[in-house]
Each structure stands twice: as structure tokens, then as C-alpha cells.
Amino acid sequence: MQEFNPEELKKLYIPASSSHKAQNGKVMLISGSKLFHAASIWPLTTISRIVDMVFYASTTENNEIVAKMKEQFLNGIVIPREKIDDYIIEADCILIGPGMPRESGQQEGDDDTKILTESLLTKYKDKKWVVDGGSLQTISPDVLPPTAITTPHKGEFLKLFGVEPTEISVPEMAKKYNVVILSKGEVDIVSSPAGESCLVSGGNAGMTKGGTGDVLAGLTAALYSKNDAYLSACAASYINKKAGESLEKSMGLYFNASDLSSEIPKVMKSLI
Questions:
Q1: 213 CB burial (10 A radius; 0-12, 13-18, 19+)
Q2: CA-to-CA distance for 231 and 215, rounded, in angstroms?
Q3: pLDDT for 37-74, tens place per residue?
Q4: Is 180 helix (H, G, I), strand (E, B) or coil?
């Protein structure tokens, strides 16, 4: 399996100078829970820096947090969960799962992650999906539509597919379930159902901190809104790791997910 070729980044969509509002990507973010707040805000912030519009749907508590942020954060629309169907239809890509609870972590007032995720994936199977976090830990892989990118870490991959992620099993599962898989690790493995696969190495120990996977999921969804699934997954993995390497030069290993989210646009400017 070959390393990702950064020359492929030149194929990514770049907004035209003549483009207008909403032409450069709209992403729906369904994430968060009563327990996990920042896990939905990290991808929200990342996505907002890349696409024209983000539709954000979380728990009442998280919606209120982001609504207060609107005094400074002006790049998204906060919507109640009961209105998500309207915005899913409008969105170019939907990210679901960051910060959503597993069954054991469910609290009163939280949506049932499995029921919500599986119902939406089934109902809107022709939409572009990025499936992450709590959604990956609760659903059956059989409900994943062929338009989906999954972004599991090692434990989520094992829970979802029943095998450890390896250079053999990741391509096998991508083909079996007809989805693109971005398997996160020290070396990421990205595979498509068409037989494309690559390795993405790099990054550093600073990227083991909580939230960096949520940033990656947001970046993947933002790119997928205007690019194909396999390129989006490979490019997101590569850019995310390069952002971590860039931060190490200025901060050592002492950076967090918010720093990573802020570094991504700078790295994209230098790479694309």
C-alpha cells in the first residue's frame, strides 16, 4: 500500500473568484450530547472556515452554548433537532456522530444515537455522509449508504466491523460495505470500495489529545461537500497531520484541538 501523494491535493475544489454565497459548500452537523459539548464545537469551527454555510443541530444545551457564541461566531445557523430534515435536504454533506453518546453514556434529554443515525442514513441514503464518533459506536454497518465516509479509530473500527484495522482488513471492509473508510491511527489507512487505498503517516504525539478526531471529521465533511469521497478522506487525513506537525514547530507537543482547528487553514493555504 502506497503513501498518499500530496500532488493529489491539487485536485481539490477551490472557490472561484466569481463564486457567490452558498456555492462553495453547505454542511449539516448533527453532533454533541448533554455530556459532550466541545466535541460538537470543534468540527463546527473547522467546517466554518472552509465552506460557505454550516447548519448546526445538537442538544438544547449545546445549541444554547453556540447561540451565545454567535456574538463572535457568525458563520453558521443553529437549528433544533426537530428541524434537521429541512436542512439535510439543503446541505451538500452531513456529518453525524461527534460527541453523540453511546448507549451506556445516554442521559435524559439526549437523542438515541443508534435510532437517530440509522433512521437518517436510511432516509437520506443519496446524500453525502461522514459518520463519526458515537454514531460509529452504535450503528450496524449494514445501514451505511454507499455515499458514506466513516472515520473510526481502532476501537470504533473493531466495534463497527468486528475486526482489527490493518492494511488488509480496511480495504476488505470498504469493499464489503461499499463505503470509504478513513481508519485513524499513528498511520491512517484510507480505502474506497473501488479498490483505492493509501497510507497517511506523519503527525505527532500532540495529536493524541481529545478532540483532534472531531477536528478531522469536520475537515473531512467540509472537503467532501465539494469533492469526491476518497479524495476528501485522503486529503483531510494528510492536512490534519500536517497541521499537527506545523504546530509542533511553534508549540512543541503542547497544543490542543482548538489550536489544531485554527492551524488547518494556514496549512491548507500552503499546500493547495
A1: buried
A2: 17
A3: 667 889 999 999 999 999 988 776 665 666 666 544 45
A4: strand
pLDDT digits (tens, 9 = 90+) for 190-237: 999 999 999 999 999 999 999 999 999 999 999 999 999 999 999 999
CB 25 within 8 A of CB 222: yes
Q: Give the span between the Cα atoms of 98 and 137, in whole angstroms.
A: 11
Helix orientation angle between 212-224 and 229-251, rounded to the nearest 10 degrees: 140
Residue 2: all three cell numbers together: 502506497
Question: How many C-beta atoms lie closer than 10 Å to residue 162's C-beta?
Answer: 10
Q: Return the residue matching grid coordinates 460509529.
A: 136
Q: Is the dihedral of CA 189, 158, 192, 115 positive or negative?
A: negative
Cα–Cα separations (whole angstroms), residue 22 to 44, 55, 79, 169, 272: 17, 12, 18, 38, 21
